[in-house]
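Minutes, structural biology subgroup

Action item carried over from last meeting: produce the structure token record for N-methyltryptophan oxidase (Polymorphospora rubra). EB confirmed the sequence was re-checked against the source entry. Recorded below for completeness.
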Amino acid sequence: MGTDVIVVGLGSMGAATAHQLASRGIRVVGVDRYTPPHTNGAHAGGSRIIRLAYAEGAAYVPLLRRAYELWAEIEQASGADLLTPTGGLMLGRPNSSTVAGALASARIHGLAHELLDAAEIRRRFPVFAPDDDEVGVYEEVAGFVRPEATVGTLLDLAGRAGADLRYGVRVTGWSAGPGGVTVRADEGELTAARLVLCPGAGAGELIADLNIPLRVERRVQHFWPVTDTGFALGRCPIWLWESAAGAVAYGFPGAEPAAGSGHRGLVVKTGVHVDPAGVPRSDLGPAEPAEAGRAAELLAPLLPAVASAGQPDGTPCLYTLTPDEHFVVGRHPRHEAVTVAAGFSGHGFKFVPVIGEIVADLAQHGATRHDIDLFAPNRFEVPA
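Output recorded by EB:
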């Protein structure tokens, strides 16, 4: 029996795509150089934010609405606990992109939200110390999803639906022609009618012919020991904050510390999405004290209890960023049998189920009902 679709890369988007295709009765072979879930890409760290009032652009909101539906379907099909609502707070000055963008998305799409001044933020969520001229957009439906658990769940569902999933397979190249596609790997060649590329941080090699100026950057997620119960789940929302200096940070409610850690309070996870003074790195080496020190410096104005909590643990991950920080999702402009999903720019995980649906649509039918014009793979091409 022949293969309909090869999926290269079985991390976040590849796992979702393999699950979608296999559940539709498509004959799928999925390959990955590692064994997902793993710590070699973007999906490590235990949690990722999900929200509807999307500062990155109102065009994302319909996709997020569908993503929420699909998250619920995956939980129902698997019995896994993947999405936890916590409420979400987008903080900054009124003209910051984090606040203004979230507010615009909420108003354009009629999303339930509140606009809180600094005094109200401090009253409702005392762990935050916004400046008097800062505000927050609050939405009840925001929360977090669990990346490693999600990837594992999707791969399990894909395998149960008939997908042939192969790990430890390093892909070195591919070609496409009238007769289908060929994938070159260390263990030999694979052939199929169609190909899906979900290469994560390896996109620069596998979609080099698209000439997308991707960059891979290291980000460290820090886990701070705190004693203030105001950080507890149910009392603290997920949050994003844009400082006056242009730093963009995010974080989560506190969780119980790992067994054997010696800490009796809570552990609060934070990350920095944009550091104006940061030095770009693309390695996955261990987190360093200097990185924690820089994070504490950035967080101190908003979260003094976190910034003074002591040396945190750190988990690095890799962002694969496009110049405009929008995704790359679509059919290859020169190969109709090839679909690409890459460049998720540090904000893609919440979309995992709907990206899987979109990419499966494109591989199966060559089109999707979702509006993905924003993500066109050829948008960076320079006219001859």
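Discussion: The mean pLDDT is 96.
Next step: EB to file the record with the rest of the batch.
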